[in-house]
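Hi all, posting the design record for the shared folder.

TITLE: backbone redesign
STEP: 1 of 1
STRUCTURE INPUT:
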């Protein structure tokens, strides 16, 4: 420490627990064996097996915050209610029953939102482009998760969630790609 700076010097943080993963083509990586030198914990979770993958076509709508009024509370908008019904319809049309109630589930979401006019020029990239503006990704995910009841019996089963938000590619549709995987093998 210097005389003028009373803050101690800190080394850059390095994670003490990092899963070892092995990516294989067309397969989800293993959750790996986690050996933590700091706490001594070891766990083996097994592999993820795809249960369902489907596309929900339509403009994704974020779950709004609850609005509290003197006489009542409104926790859903008509637009988000319709979006959840669209998600539930797409999940039901997939034709696969719900994952068992005690099985851990992983959900991967890719939201393709409409491109603004400024990104429709010939000089713009043709593929998906990161979407750094509203709606918030967590609120988009909440609305989709609420609509997955035909495939996931209980939201509490979800132990892993990834969500990506992009402007649609030039030839892509607007909507959400939903991939649901369940844990197979290992200690559950």
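Okay, here is what came back for every position:
SEQUENCE:
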């Amino acid at each position: 420490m210097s005389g003028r700076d009373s803050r101690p010097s800190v080394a850059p943080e390095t994670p003490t627990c990092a899963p070892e993963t092995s990516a294989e083509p067309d397969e989800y990586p293993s959750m790996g064996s986690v050996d933590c030198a700091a706490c001594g914990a070891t766990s083996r979770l097994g592999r993820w097996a795809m249960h369902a993958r489907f596309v929900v076509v339509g403009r994704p709508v974020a779950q709004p915050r609850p609005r509290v009024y003197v006489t009542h509370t409104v926790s859903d908008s008509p637009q988000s209610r319709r979006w959840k019904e669209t998600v539930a319809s797409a999940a039901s049309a997939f034709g696969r029953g719900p994952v068992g109630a005690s099985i851990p589930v992983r959900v991967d979401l890719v939201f393709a939102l409409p491109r603004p006019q400024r990104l429709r020029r010939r000089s713009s990239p043709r593929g998906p482009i990161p979407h750094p503006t509203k709606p918030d990704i967590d609120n988009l995910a909440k609305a989709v998760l609420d609509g997955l009841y035909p495939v996931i019996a209980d939201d509490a089963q979800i132990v892993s969630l990834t969500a990506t938000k992009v402007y649609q590619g030039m030839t892509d549709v607007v909507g959400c790609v939903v991939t649901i995987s369940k844990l197979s093998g290992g200690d559950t």
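COMMENT: Strands lie at 33-35, 42-44, 47-57, 67-68, 73-74, 105-113, 129-130, 158-167, 175-184.
Let me know if anyone wants the other runs.
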